[in-house]
Amino acid sequence: MSIMEEVADQLAQDVIAAAEEIGNDNLIEDVSKSLAATSTTTQEAFLTAVRYRQAEKRARRLLKTKVASESW
After folding, report:
1. Is the pLDDT at 50 greater than 90, yes or no?
2. Entry pTM
């Protein structure tokens, strides 16, 4: 993973956590716009990391629900 991808991923994790904490998903878009003003490459890496992290969260939630609903 490149330094840009590492930075973008860490920023994505921090922004997602902050957005959840304050209850404002627009924070992700605001940070994205800020990145676009200086580096579209970093913005793209950030948005990719956000999508990965959010997809993983949804998948884990589904997995947890499926496992909990199984009768052993």
Report:
1. yes
2. 0.87
